[in-house]
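Dig into what follows:
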Amino acid sequence: MPYLETYRGVVNQADCDHLGHMNVARYYGICADVGIVLQNEIGLTPEDIRHGRRIGMVVVRNESDFKAEILVAEPIIMRSAILEIGSKSLLFHHQLFRADGVIAFDTTQRVVLFDLVKRTAAEIPPDVREKVEAIMVTERA
């Protein structure tokens, strides 16, 4: 399965720092948003997280490369994939593109399924595992 488009937007002035380019906090804010998109793709909806099984994903490791500047008013697109599945964790890969097709940001995130009641890591349920395996990418873009 190809990478999924998980975010599309335009950089606002408020997203930029004193150097005039998109602030690091905004990159990770987008990653937080697209994490929710991926959770929905694998069957962990906001309703399920809040009132259902009370499980969700938490980031435990992040490795990022900032490859090119993104300036105010630039359109941006994030594409994401799930690269690995373990018993309790997944490996997310996100790439943020400028409108000219240049990859500006590349990050991998190890996320763990988190039991929101017990506040501990949890085994990935069979229905979630099935959905992950259906969309998982075997090679990094």
